[in-house]
Write a structure and sequence with these properties.
With about 425 residues, this protein is α+β, with helices and mostly antiparallel strands. The protein is built from 13 helices and 14 strands. Helix 8 packs across helix 9. The protein is globular, with a radius of gyration of 21 Å.
């Protein structure tokens, strides 16, 4: 394994470039009515926002694989000052209505960090949910595209959710629930996107190692571990230190930014984004799932895993009160499902197999619990990391797809 895994879901900066004027988080007052009686309009007021947030609970009411979010967090995630991406992005929170009921939703946003980094005029959509009706999805996408075009955007990419750390639509692997901070959607979503003119821009793959299915690390990797210790005795490993979590989080941020820079869609992570990640993951932190490789005591590689608390969120229905928060906090320590969320190696140390070393440490630390480990997202064209995971005996189980569509910008001057 020579390349850093692009498995992390740290929020990328997604943004503006010359010719597009950034504005505070705001929405337009325009609306669009179709011949089917569907009205799309910006979410305005507490009643609209409540309907927007709770819509998935009715959409997925009969789907056994859907897992509710933490509703308390979801209610505040779209508010000013609570979301770093939306706070710095011009954005629109849109919903489609049929009569008095919501039938679809979408967030359109343009964030300066992405476009400044790549020199593009890209807009993004996320938080997409929709009934199985092409007329509804067409109305949502049309409203978002009109909003984008008026801001000089010439292509739209998504879904990349600015709230939950989720990229892509699930296009295969619908028979299992998602792990924490990964997407889930009905099988028809891909067809809705394609009907609106969106095409595949990148597939993100998911691999699994399940000890309950007999998974074991091949012996040749144990021999490699021994050889590496002889060849590079200055290299040591350690877990994250909960007493110094902010310091270690900064190590992770620095290693990710250096080790993953240049990978598709990756924008350097800022301190405010890392602070949000720490805030969200600290309550479920398992030190045995977060590892560093150090060279003479200096961190040069890291891997991040965490327990799949979706198992508990499903049990408590996403509600923290009255007892959900305690069940989430204490139950996370007994979970057997984990997610490998990210892995990165400083460029100078790539090619030495440090990613394999960290995977071995992670696997050994969790093996006695009978853990199932899911690694995502893996870029489809990252052939070296795919080959390495497959040589480690991991099985491909899911695919997420990111879509894109070209637009003709409207001159807003």
């Amino acid at each position: 394994m020579e390349d850093p895994v692009v498995g992390h879901c740290l929020r990328t900066g997604l943004g503006l470039r010359s010719g597009i004027t950034a504005k505070p988080a705001s929405v337009d007052n325009d609306r669009m009515r179709t011949s089917y009686g569907i009205v799309t309009r910006p979410v305005a007021g507490p009643r609209d926002m409540k309907a927007f947030i709770r819509f998935p609970s009715s959409l997925y009411a009969s789907d056994p694989c859907w897992v509710p979010p933490i509703w308390a967090a979801e209610r505040t995630a779209y508010l000013p000052g609570r979301n770093a991406v939306l706070d710095r992005s011009d954005h629109a929170i849109l919903a489609a209505w049929s009569g008095d009921g919501i039938v679809g939703r979408i967030v359109a946003y343009v964030d300066p960090r992405f476009n400044d980094h790549f020199g593009t005029r890209t807009g993004f959509f996320g938080s997409f949910e929709c009934v199985d009706d092409p007329a509804v999805s067409a109305a949502l996408f049309a409203a978002a595209e009109t909003w984008f075009a008026a801001r000089g955007v010439d292509r739209v990419r998504g879904p990349i959710n600015p709230v939950a750390e989720c990229w892509g639509l699930l296009v295969d692997g619908f028979d299992a629930p998602p792990v924490y901070l990964s997407p889930y959607n009905p099988p028809y979503y891909g067809a809705l996107a394609e009907a609106a003119g969106y095409g595949r821009v990148k597939d993100l793959l998911v691999y699994e190692a399940d000890t309950a299915k007999g998974y074991e690390i091949p012996e040749r990797f144990r021999r490699f571990e021994t050889m590496l210790a002889v060849r590079r005795p200055s290299l040591t490993t350690r877990t994250i230190d909960p007493r110094h979590i902010d310091r270690d989080a900064e190590y992770i941020r620095s290693i990710l930014n250096a080790g993953v820079d240049g990978n598709w869609g990756y924008v350097p992570v800022e301190r405010d984004e890392m602070a949000a990640v720490v805030r969200d993951l600290k309550p479920i932190l398992d030190p045995a799932a977060v590892w560093f490789v150090e060279d003479d005591g200096v961190p040069v590689a890291c891997c991040l895993g965490f327990p799949d608390v979706n198992v508990i969120l499903e049990e408590i229905g996403g509600r923290l009160f009255p007892t959900g928060a305690l069940r989430l906090l204490f139950g996370a320590r007994r979970l057997h499902d984990y997610r490998l969320w990210g892995l990165a190696v400083l460029p100078k140390y790539q090619g030495l197999g440090l990613d394999v070393l960290m995977y071995l440490r992670l696997s050994d630390a969790l093996a006695r619990r009978g853990v199932r480990m899911e690694a995502n997202y893996i870029l489809e064209d990252n052939l070296r990391i795919r080959n390495a995971l497959e040589k480690l005996g991991m099985s491909r189980i899911k695919t997420y797809r990111v879509y894109e569509k070209a637009l003709r910008a409207i001159d807003a001057s």
